[in-house]
């Protein structure tokens, strides 16, 4: 299986999450390991195969999905290899092909917007990954805890989502790269078209909540004026 990477997400220091579209079907695929998480040595700047816009051969995969994470495919990271980087025009064209104009089109009616975010109940839903073409320009900021966040204020209710785009953080995965955040924010304000890679977290229980839930987040921000912005160019 070969995927074109369009989701590259920070996790705890030393780890990351990646997903892409199957180059044959354009269906989203999330490569996962049998027992462990993906480590950052698998990123292109560190000699691994994964970066935004890269076409990666995963080898043989087996289905590991369950609702809503139906995209999960188990693979052997030792067999994965980088093939080539897509061209900027082709990459943007693919993003447009897979993008949807509403969150409901991506996640279905199981996604509930509340508490300035969105959630899907454990074991429910038809997908956990997608690309969103927002109706109106989002706006970006860094909160008091140093988390990059993105607001979609045209939604009812509006949402204020965590942005876990690996490219917007330092190597520690915690410190925001404020110069890059400011650049993206300025370009959004100027009207540069954006497509958002969005996803659901693994289930966790928020403080004060009664249950574990899958929470909506922004995985990556893709901009038309530089769609193939990669880790290897910025690190």
What does this structure look like?
The protein is mainly beta and 235 residues long. The chain folds into 2 domains: 2-89, OB fold (Dihydrolipoamide Acetyltransferase, E2P) (Beta Barrel), CATH 2.40.50; 99-234, Beta Barrel (OB fold (Dihydrolipoamide Acetyltransferase, E2P)). It has helices at 88-98, 103-107, 178-189, 231-234, and strands at 2-10, 15-22, 28-32, 38-39, 54-57, 62-63, 72-74, 81-85, 99-100, 112-114, 117-121, 129-132, 139-142, 148-152, 159-162, 194-200, 213-223. Strands 1, 2, 3, 4, 5, 6, 7 and 8 form an 8-stranded mixed sheet that branches. A hairpin with a 4-residue loop joins strand 1 (2-10) and strand 2. The radius of gyration is 17 Å and the shape is globular. The mean pLDDT is 96.
Summed up, what is this model?
The chain is mainly beta and 235 residues long. The chain is 14% helix and 35% strand. The longest helix has 12 residues, at 178-189.
Report the CATH architecture of the largest domain. Answer: Beta Barrel
Number of continuous helical runs: 4
Overall number of domains = 2
Provide the low-confidence segments as ranges: none
Question: Which word captures the global form?
Answer: globular
The number of strands is 17
How widely separated are the two ends? 28 Å
Mean pLDDT: 96
Proportion of beta-strand residues: 35-45%
Main β-sheet description: 8 strands, mixed
N to C succession of SSEs: EEEEEEEEHEHEEEEEEHEEH
Q: Measured on Cα atoms, how large is the radius of gyration?
A: 17 Å
């Amino acid at each position: 299986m070969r995927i074109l990477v369009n989701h590259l997400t920070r996790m705890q220091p030393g780890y990351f999450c990646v997903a892409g579209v199957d180059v044959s079907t354009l269906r989203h695929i999330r490569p996962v390991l049998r027992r462990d998480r993906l480590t950052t040595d698998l990123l292109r700047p560190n000699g691994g195969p994964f970066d935004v816009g890269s076409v990666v051969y995963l080898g043989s995969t087996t289905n590991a999905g369950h609702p809503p994470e139906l995209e999960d495919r188990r693979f052997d990271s030792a067999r994965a290899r980088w093939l080539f980087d897509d061209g900027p025009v082709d990459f943007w064209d693919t993003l447009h092909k897979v993008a949807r104009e509403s969150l409901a089109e991506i996640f279905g009616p199981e996604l509930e917007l509340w508490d300035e975010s969105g959630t899907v109940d454990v074991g429910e839903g038809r997908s956990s990954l997608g690309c969103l073409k927002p109706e109106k320009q989002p706006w970006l900021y860094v909160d008091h805890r140093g988390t990059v966040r993105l607001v979609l204020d045209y939604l009812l209710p509006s949402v204020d989502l965590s942005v876990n785009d690996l490219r917007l953080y330092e190597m520690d995965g915690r410190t925001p790269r404020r110069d890059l955040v400011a650049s993206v924010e300025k370009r959004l304000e100027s009207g540069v078209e954006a497509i958002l890679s969005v996803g659901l977290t693994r289930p966790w229980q928020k403080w004060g909540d009664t249950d574990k839930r899958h929470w909506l987040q922004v995985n990556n921000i893709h901009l038309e004026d530089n769609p193939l912005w990669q880790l290897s160019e910025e690190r």
